[in-house]
Design a protein that fits this description.
276 residues, alpha/beta, seven-stranded parallel β-sheet, two-stranded antiparallel sheet, Short-chain dehydrogenase reductase 3b-like, NAD(P)-bd_dom_sf, SDR_fam
């Protein structure tokens, strides 16, 4: 029996019916948390909750673009469990794949409404509940490698994920006074149902594409790996980590692969060259 790292904790997870959200629901439940799983995919959401069973997971419909639904979902969680210790604000969309020259601004607005405004709403109402109950909670948001590297996602998606990192840093600065930690996770490409649908590819095709571009070879990134990162940030093992954007990208966002197979020299002050 593994250590129950979230025993006695109550978690609210958005975008919980599939992909990263579903894996996180399952992992948090394994580690002793009780969970309200929120999504707009009702059939899938109820299936996830039923498959875990034992009263550990309750599904609740929530479209994060609607602040009233977000507030109602937070209140539902409080009425059912009396508190919220962890928020994993994971709901998001990829949006249109069109380039900037053909950008559909209505689609752009919808992406921002989901990926930024929706997250802001979940942080706002969950943090209010934590502050009112003096809970030193953990808030985690899903960003992306696109939050730090351009050209890795559509325009609206990339813009929204950059904005989300700013939101996390801003919320961290304010909520630290209440002992609430705010962090984010930036995954590399994963074959989630969302990604497969957006790019019209099978999971093995998405994984093959990601592996071909990856810096770290020999590992296929899965949704479970992101859930494990969320588990760490949610647990007391990360008790003094806040304002951090945890990249789970195998070094992709910090390495220029175009130089990886070519000897590079750098010039130092003596005008000699040192191999690097």
């Amino acid at each position: 029996m593994h250590k129950q790292r979230l025993e006695g904790k109550v978690a609210l997870i958005t975008g919980a019916a599939s992909g990263i959200g579903e894996e996180t629901v399952r992992l948090f439940a394994e580690h002793g948390a009780v969970i309200v799983a929120a999504d707009v995919q009702d059939e899938k959401g109820y299936q996830v909750a039923a498959s875990i069973g034992s009263g550990k997971v309750t599904y609740h419909h929530c479209d994060v673009r609607d602040e009233n639904q977000v507030e109602e979902t937070v209140n539902f969680t409080l009425e059912k469990h009396g508190r919220i210790d962890i928020l994993f604000s994971n709901a998001g969309i990829i949006g249109s794949l069109s380039g900037i020259l053909d950008l559909d601004l209505n689609d752009f607005d919808n992406t921002m409404a989901t990926n930024v405004r929706g997250v802001a709403a979940t942080i706002k109402h969950t943090a209010r509940a934590m502050v009112a109950r003096s809970i030193r909670g953990s808030i985690i948001c899903t960003t992306s490698v696109a939050a730090s590297v351009g050209g890795t996602g559509p325009n609206g998606y990339t813009t929204s994920k950059h904005a989300l990192v700013g939101l996390v840093k801003s919320a961290c600065g304010e909520l630290g006074d209440y002992g609430i930690r705010v962090n984010s996770i930036s995954p590399f490409g994963i074959a989630t149902p969302l990604a497969c649908k957006a790019f019209n590819l099978e999971p093995d095709q998405v994984e093959a594409n990601s592996c071909s571009q990856a810096n770290l070879k020999g590992v296929v990134l899965k949704a479970r790996h992101i859930a494990e990162a969320a588990l760490f940030l949610a647990s007391d093992e990360a008790i003094y980590i806040s304002g951090h954007n945890l990249a789970v990208d195998g070094g992709f966002s910090v390495v220029n692969r175009s130089y990886s197979t070519t000897p590079v020299c750098i010039q130092v002050e003596t005008n000699s060259f040192v191999p690097h």
